[in-house]
Amino acid sequence: MHFAPLQGSAAQAYLHTHGLPTEEFDTLVYVPAWERRDRPEYLVRTTGVIAALRVIGTRSALVLAGLVALFPAVLRDTAYRVIGRWRYRVFGPWRPRPLPRVEWSAQFLD
Hints:
It contains 4 helices and 2 strands. The chain is mainly alpha-helical. Strands 1-2 form a two-stranded antiparallel sheet. Helix 2 (about 45-55) packs antiparallel against helix 3. The chain is globular.
């Protein structure tokens, strides 16, 4: 699995190519196969979260994916938006931190 900030050049190119918003950064866009990024195969918000958890494949990730999937997408996505609004109030602003393992940096696209 690879990660890219939506503001970065790789994600911006993908968003632009597939007609997705390029200035709204309040969601998650999951691309199941980055090597086939020319195809419009993506999942957003909690549907993307569920797919990513399934790819992670650990027991706890699969259980969490199963629990989240029990709820209709409308409810999941509403909760996603509410959590997104409150996360800075609860956890504070994002601060860059070094990765615990240097080799993890290869997982990040610009």
